[in-house]
Design a protein that fits this description.
It is a single chain. It contains four helices and no strands. It is elongated, with a radius of gyration of 22 Å. 25% of the residues are buried.
Length: 102
Amino acid sequence: MASFGHGTRRHPRTRGRTWSRSGPDRATLGIIGAICAVAGFFVLGIVLGPVAIVCGWLALGRSWTGSSRSVPALIALVLGAIDTLLAVVWLAGATTSGYSMF
């Protein structure tokens, strides 16, 4: 019964308010996003580009402010945006045929 009244002294936050430790951390998300962005230039850019953007944004902590900007997260965000833009332009160009009037 010694620990009956002192349960919050060691762990001041409740279990529901703490972050889950089972998911990937920010550095891993930045590296995964950078790999997806580079791979998106070669295959499936329309899919891997947005994946790289999401991973980069989550690795940045879902904000632009702060001094802890990691380089892989910024690379993933920028290259993912370029990759998505190029894939959309390529898809728009592929839908028009060369024999149309316009």
